[in-house]
Amino acid sequence: MTAMKVFSSLFFSLIWTAALSAASAEIMSGAHAEVSADQLQFFEKNIRPVLVEHCYKCHSAASDKIKGGLTLDTKQGLQLGGESGHAGVTPGSVGESSIYEAMTWQRDDMQMPPKNKLPEEVISNFKKWIEMGAPDPREQTVANATGGRREINMKEGRQHWSFQKPKLSVVPELKDASWARSTIDQWVQAGYEKAGLKPAPDAERRTLIRRIAFDLTGLPPSPEEVEAYLKDTSPQATEQVIQQYLDSPRFGERWGRYWLDVARYGESSGKEVNVLYPHAWRYRDYVIDAFNRDKPYDQFVKEQIAGDLMRHESQRDQAEKIVATGFLAIGSKGHNNRDRRQFTMDMVDEQIDAISQSMLGLTLACARCHDHKFDPVTQRDYYALAGIFLSSETLYGTNRQLQNNNPSSLIELEPGAGQISGLASISASEYAELKQRYETANASAEEAERAVLAQRRERRENNNAADLLRIRAARDRSEALKADLDQFYDDGSVRSLAMGVLDRDLPVNSPLLVRGDLKQPGDVVPRGLVEVLCAEDEPRNISQGSGRLDLAWFIASSDNPLTARVMVNRIWSKLMGAGIVTTPDNFGFMGQKPSHPELLDYLAISFVKKGWSVKSMIREIMLSRSYQMASTYDVANYAVDPDNKWHWRMNQRRLDAEALRDSMLAVAGTLNLYPVDGSPVARAGEGREGLVTLFRDISTPSYNYRSIYLPILRDQIPEFLTVFDFPDASLVNGERDTTNVPSQSLFLMNNPQVLSAADAFAERLGKYPGTALDRLHYAYQLAFSRVPSAEEWTAIKSFWSRFVPEATEGKGSQQAKDRAQKVALSAFCQSLLASAEFRYLN
């Protein structure tokens, strides 16, 4: 057997183990296909309203005559198709879906709707929906074929569990009084005892510290930290190590990323044009800092909705609060929309959707075109909120370009606010040169435009498209130079600019738009709050200002039944591997009911009582015996509870994309823990050339910062993140998908970044004192926080003893031996990085 075969045997054995372990993890977690919360939201927001507005008149049970035998008001009818014999929708296949073919007007004899083609964004949404499997929550038959309007009974709606205020309940008597260490444990124990289950044993200490380190910092513990924990036999050892990681600056980078998922953070607009947002990074840094400082969550919420309207203690505090409102400005937008009113209403809809899902766990945006199909939320509720955001000016900072019909300025922060800069200063002479270039370009653009206007006045229609495009290109160059110029003061120092929201001078109320159509305005709706979350006789209307401050206090109130529940459920989900409510962004009627409602209420009440402290809540959960359980598989328990609903063991969890990349760099010894100042997006400039340079730079080994500082351009996410299930940055994402697919194994085997990390890992080991076998032993400690088992150690020694001699057979020089050892060590390191144990937490 050759040396390479020896390595291949070890490497692919580890890869095979990885695949089996991952598959086992999926089986044990009870993964199954169904309409997810994100898919449900996508259907209700982007698909159902279009079907109702454009299709039901001719293709529903309520139609006078169903044209073509095609009904689109049920899931079955949509997939079955009509008299043509072709399926209306074939899940996963756009090419076999006749409804998509019809709406794209590919054939002259099948164009739907027949008079006006649907907007490209709508067609794109249908394509995306079909490709994701055409998830459709509708019943197979129409419950009310007469098309009667659903009447919402608010009194009944308020009886839903999530609209009731949390209350403390008495823990039932437990069979084993010795197991629980806390109130959390008592409720968990009550659940699994009721189901007839027995708890898994406590996790081994090496496993526990690795779990704690990753959960709090997203990085593995160092061998020194592991050994110190093992040697500390005091009762406070675990609490002290938890506090150590909570106090680390790495905590904010880990938990800030969780919120950025929820906040749909992105540094570009996405959609058809994908305009860059060079100043989005300020919001990212605000979030990281907020988690590191343990900013009270209610304050965190208020600042993101209305920070610009809140009292401030200093210019720095004021700037921080303004930056927080970037939450409302960073959402995805269709900048090429020619109708400014439609663009604004779509932006408001996106803001309502983001706030309601992230903070309230409700899909309020589903009421834009009609009363909510499931929750007690009316169209009047929606347009009461819409007036609040129409009365606010959203500033996102884009210059007018050929396909950007909706530019915006930014908010300038006070020079004394102490904000870091994402750009380097320039000299006064460089500023003067840049200003001259802009003035020249602007003059050229104006001259070209005047020439065209003169020709039009003389009625010379000899203007052709090429002339107009040249004029547009000249204006684009001028606008791009103006955007660069606006970054600096006259002396070349950098201006502090931020995305965010400010109140308009005069607030406005929005009309209720029939079917969400701007052309069908109805009654004007006063700005106000959501009725179902208010007491029956509580005033809901807002008479002064935009109403954002009122909305912020309303959402962040301890009396709000949802806000604390939603956040503690998010915290529980990240620490336990599954939420008490498994639809973290939807606590409405279509969301899942809590597995432990009394525990959820206890956590929510405790969260508020302890000052809305995220760190305190994390500490309380981590100190529970429930968190410190092993992930041991049990046949009898699994037969009763395969999904681990009753938490009889810890869920095995795969590292997310960022933790996986960061861990590779960490064990390789190349991770740069210095935070990035700004973002590569801020320095990319305009145009394709800047983007090409950006992606080239972040793919090199020298860009070894934490993954939270990677640029997040919508629809152009870095490959390392997309392969390992990075979410859609245009949507609220409280829970990421976790897949185990061949492309991930291939990536770990072939990707240059992985190979570079393996080489650096090997180089680090080469500097470790001792023998070659000592270095391999240390590699296990770095990668897995443990030493090799006896069986593994035997295999490792066999591999090492055979690889180098066989690789250098016939080449006895020392140089050949050194080269073979380097190759062997790098290959060994890559096998560790590609293993299941490296990717999973037990």
From TrEMBL:
<feature type="coiled-coil region">
    <location>
        <begin position="428"/>
        <end position="491"/>
    </location>
</feature>
<feature type="signal peptide">
    <location>
        <begin position="1"/>
        <end position="33"/>
    </location>
</feature>
<dbReference type="Pfam" id="PF07583">
    <property type="entry name" value="PSCyt2"/>
</dbReference>
<feature type="domain" description="Cytochrome C Planctomycete-type">
    <location>
        <begin position="55"/>
        <end position="115"/>
    </location>
</feature>
<dbReference type="InterPro" id="IPR011444">
    <property type="entry name" value="DUF1549"/>
</dbReference>
<keyword id="KW-0732">Signal</keyword>
<feature type="domain" description="DUF1549">
    <location>
        <begin position="184"/>
        <end position="392"/>
    </location>
</feature>
<keyword id="KW-0175">Coiled coil</keyword>
<dbReference type="Pfam" id="PF07587">
    <property type="entry name" value="PSD1"/>
</dbReference>
<dbReference type="Pfam" id="PF07635">
    <property type="entry name" value="PSCyt1"/>
</dbReference>
<feature type="domain" description="DUF1553">
    <location>
        <begin position="547"/>
        <end position="799"/>
    </location>
</feature>
<protein>
    <submittedName>
        <fullName>Planctomycete cytochrome C</fullName>
    </submittedName>
</protein>
<dbReference type="InterPro" id="IPR011429">
    <property type="entry name" value="Cyt_c_Planctomycete-type"/>
</dbReference>
<dbReference type="InterPro" id="IPR022655">
    <property type="entry name" value="DUF1553"/>
</dbReference>
